[in-house]
Design brief:
The complex is a heterodimer of chains A (303) and B (14). With 303 residues, chain A is an alpha+beta fold. Chain A contains six helices and 21 strands. With 14 residues, chain B is mainly beta. The chains are: A alpha+beta (303), B mainly beta (14).
Chain lengths: 303, 14
């Protein structure tokens, strides 16, 4: 049995949004300590790694390790049905073939408001364990959701069942690495740089020197350069730019992938870039005290 | 033009 309740369900919504353009299918690996996802894009150029620690949930139970294979597009469709203020509970049986997702609105008063209406409403085909007189079940009829699962509404509690699948994903062992350069900067600023640079070309060079971090692109239209300097004493934490450098590093990357990574911008005010010569960059978005989403991107290298 | 590397070139399978 696996059960985990996240008061801030928005995190889960944003996480799936942040990986569904990169990864079609992946496993959610559940253990005592955390839920994690590791998956590569189809062409194995990039890798995404998610970790949400069990301590970040307000309820967490995982009796034995589970791998829940899911389709990211379908999960994204279901999570779109959760409000930004909703708490989300994930539930799975040890040998089940579906993941149950329960969305609860913040306004519990609505339960009373809808009581009479619901009793008189259509059918009362109650799911197991629910309060029979207070719920009803609707098969998915929305065109976009046909066949994805079943929706059960209990007033302001919605229960969705996502069909799970067996996924043979190739898991890469990523060693802990001391990187030569660590840059922390506002995630919104990073997103803007990536968006603007894409106008000019498809390859971005990131160069870190004593001067600061230089983002550069060369294309048919012309060239673009943005220099970010250390600003460790900005008034707000999230405005700070901090650069730790052991030695200068310059690497080049496909902007297409960096652009996918910036879909995680809403998860936090800060992004951390880790670089060493001739190895993948790590683009990390910390998620409060709960965990992180990290993207790894293989560089372009002279052979 | 520099060729694009793949993740498998850097990390091995678990």
């Amino acid at each position: 049995m696996f059960e985990a309740r996240l008061t801030s369900g928005k995190i889960l919504k944003q996480l799936i949004e942040a990986l569904k353009d990169l990864v079609q299918e992946a496993n959610i690996d559940c253990s005592d300590d955390e839920i994690s996802i590791q998956a590569m894009d189809n062409s194995h150029v990039s890798l995404v790694a998610v970790s949400l620690r069990s301590g970040g949930f307000d309820h967490f139970r995982c009796d034995r390790p589970l791998s829940l294979g899911f389709n990211a597009t379908n999960m994204g469709k279901i999570l779109k049905c959760a409000g930004n203020e909703d708490a989300i509970t994930l539930k799975a049986e040890d040998d089940g073939d579906s993941l149950s997702m329960v969305f609860e609105g913040p306004n519990q008063d609505r339960i009373a408001d809808f009581g009479e209406f619901a009793r008189g409403a259509r059918g009362s085909d109650s799911p197991p364990g629910s309060r029979r007189e207070k719920c009803w079940k609707i098969d998915f009829n929305f065109a976009t959701m046909r066949g994805v699962g079943v929706l059960v509404v209990i007033f302001d509690r919605k229960i969705y069942e996502l069909k799970l699948m067996d996924i043979d994903s190739e898991q890469l062992g990523i060693p802990d690495t001391d990187y030569k350069v660590t840059i922390q900067m506002p995630s919104g600023e990073f997103q803007r740089i990536i968006r603007d640079m894409q106008v000019l070309g498809d390859t971005l060079s990131i160069s870190c020197t004593k001067e600061g971090v230089k983002f550069g692109v060369q294309g048919d239209l012309g060239t673009g350069n943005v220099l970010i300097r250390q600003n460790a004493h900005a008034e707000k934490d999230e405005d700070r730019v901090m650069i730790e450098m052991e030695e200068p590093v310059e690497l080049t990357f496909a902007l297409r992938y960096l652009n996918f990574f910036t879909k995680a911008t809403n998860l936090g005010p800060t992004v951390i870039l880790n670089m060493s010569p001739d190895v993948p960059i790590v683009v990390e978005y910390p998620i409060g005290e709960t965990g992180h989403i990290k993207y790894y991107l293989a560089p372009k290298i002279d052979e | 033009k520099k060729p694009q590397m793949r993740m498998d070139s850097f990390f091995s399978l678990k």
